[in-house]
Design a protein that fits this description.
The complex is a heterodimer.
Chain A (H helix, E strand, L loop, with lengths): L1 H6 L8 H20 L15 E7 L5 H19 L3 E8 L4 H14 L3 E5 L7 H9 L3 E5 L9 E4 L2 H15 L5 E6 L5 H16 L3 E7 L4 H14 L5 E4 L4 H10 L7 E2 L5 H13 L6 E2 L5 H13 L9 E2 L3 E3 L5 E2 L4 H8 L14 H5 L4
Parallel strand pairs in A: 1-2, 1-3, 3-4, 4-5, 5-12, 6-7, 6-8, 8-9
Antiparallel strand pairs in A: 10-13, 11-12
Chain B lengths: L12 H5 L4 H18 L6 H26 L7 H16 L6 H25 L4 H19 L9 H7 L2 E2 L3 E2 H18 L1 H11 L1 H6 L4 H27 L10 H11 L11 H20 L4 H29 L2
Antiparallel strand pairs in B: 1-2
Helix pairs in contact in B: 2-13, 3-8, 3-9, 3-11, 3-12, 3-13, 4-5, 4-6, 4-11, 5-6, 5-11, 7-11, 9-11, 12-13, 13-14
Classes of the chains: A alpha/beta, B mainly alpha.
Amino acid sequence: MGWTALFGRPAKRTTWRSGAAALAGLALFAVGACSSPSPSGGGGDEGQDTFTIGVSNGFVGSEWRTQMLDDVRTVFDTYKQQGVVDELVVESADVDVNGQIQQIRNLINTGVDAIIVNPNSPTALNAVFTEAKQKGILVVATDQAVQSQDVTNVVIDQGEWARRSAEWLAEQLEAGDSVGVVNGVDGHPANEARWAAARQALEDGQVKIETVTNGDWDQATGQQVTSNMLASHPDLDGIWTQDGMALGVFQAVKGAGKLDDLVLTGEARVGFMRQWADQRQQGDFETIGVVNPPGVAGSALHIAVRMLQDKQLKSEVVSDGNTVYVPIPDVVTNENFDELWAEVQDEPDAYALDGTISAREADTYFR
Amino acid sequence: MTRPSALSAGPLRPLLGARMPTVATAVLLVATVAASAVLQDGFFTPYGLTSNFAAVLPVAIVTVGQVIVVLGGGIDLSIGTIVTLSSVVTVQLVAGQPDRLPLALGAGLLVGVGCGLVNGLAVAVVRLQPIVATFASSFVFAGLALLILPTPGGEVPSLVTLGYRQVIARAIPVPAVLLLLLWLAWRAVLAHRFGRHVYAVGGNEGAAYASAVPVTAVRLLSYVAGGTFAALAGFALLANSGSGDPFLGNSLTLTSIAALVIGGTRLSGGAGGAGGAIVGAVVLVLIQSLVFFARVPTTARELVTGAIIIVAIALAGLLTARGRGAGP
């Protein structure tokens, strides 16, 4: 009865096939167990000089994240050659918040010394971050800042990032001109920070914000909402947009034959820059692309390694109690376009212009 | 009560009729636990046990809710969004204050019941197709969750998050105790007349109706029960994460269906149970961690996880299809 109760109703009868299935299942896991390297020896704690680094990435659907992980590996390899670190354990999969909590717990169980995390939520990982800290593990969040004071954030200033292109747009226009805005996702922390700063810059430039819409950080959606915007607001003088949608906005404006009438902000990605290059050959097209570097995660590793070596961050580089802002590497304009385009034109369209702080720059963050 | 031989007709019959044999489920459990013990350093330490049970509990609870719906011949594609909606209501009301917990938990539970009622009315009374009705309602619930908690935030009292991580007598994690309570709750459902009626309705609706089973009420109640368990899963997620997020539980819908199939519940209804489903949830969560601890390269992990789950579920299809062919 107990057996039946636990597993629901009994199978009609147990045949040899069940036994075969059982063996197959066991074999499957035995194979998995044999072919994998020994899991022991991962931890680099207990007074050793080499550190084990864990990475938790909860979203794999974009080229940007792939580039981010590559950048972390590049920085890791330089430290490995110096004998500072011994192993990089990467947890990267499309997971929900619960799944990322488990990712981080797995890293804790592996015995890493530091975890670099691109968090899926700025708040919902707080409890597991506290667990890590209690285990003596350093946690550094990158790309997206988190609230937990047990974590050091190494990010670019999203407000500053947005302000650059909004200020540029306001300069191109005259006081009283009207602009449309294509934002990302309402309620997303990066979207809110960017829009607050961009709105301020546009208002300071005495530009009229005519209409605001969301393109979900998706090129196709961005193109669709821009087409609608152009139809309903035929008198716009410019469009401000964020990362990952500028190509869609550009296509919509081009499709409507209004490239000469509107000033657009762009993005520092190869797909957009390819269109930019074409337009420059045909006329006096001008736009701006502010780099949002995937290499910020590599910068985070530079910071993490120094913190593991018990170095102290200078108080003036820390904002909001736990956030280190690294500089925005480049701003692409017509002035430096040819130079930057020559470096990246063979990359795939999804490639984002990149930048990581150097080891020497990282040293200047510490006492 | 014999297992009904008449299944819902259609081309999906062999697939939906398949059911994981109990032995296969048990073997999967033993295999994943054994593999975890070998590969995962510190699997049996208090921290290892707590972290695994803490991850299993929300999945297990939502799976039990789905099992009740599926046993009754339905399916709930909105169950993950009910988890989210209940959790955001709870986290907004509790606002980090322990003395507001009873109010917040009560409201969260009511939200779960209410969502289940909406689904139940649509399916049992209005008689919409369960897949379509609950797929549609999932957007309503997800949208409401975004309205209530537009940005991630809110704070769960540390009393709850710390309590969830406690280990009793150095070996028994709190989430494991809660898992046992979950199973006892299922036994209570089963002992009640409602439990037997659910099996009857899911197995053969016509026969159940002819035997004076209140079919409409039973189907309605199965969705209410599903929504209630979803709310409880939301509480477990909150205790695990410590804060709210408007997308917190949405992906649990498909996880719950995979777990119940591994656990031996038949997707066309009428056969299976929550005990197996809990085991299915354990197996599923352990597989995901195993792929990590086996040091499968990052790029291959999704592939390997998917392949293991498909092989596990395929065992069920192969075995039952042949078994029935040989029968009378």
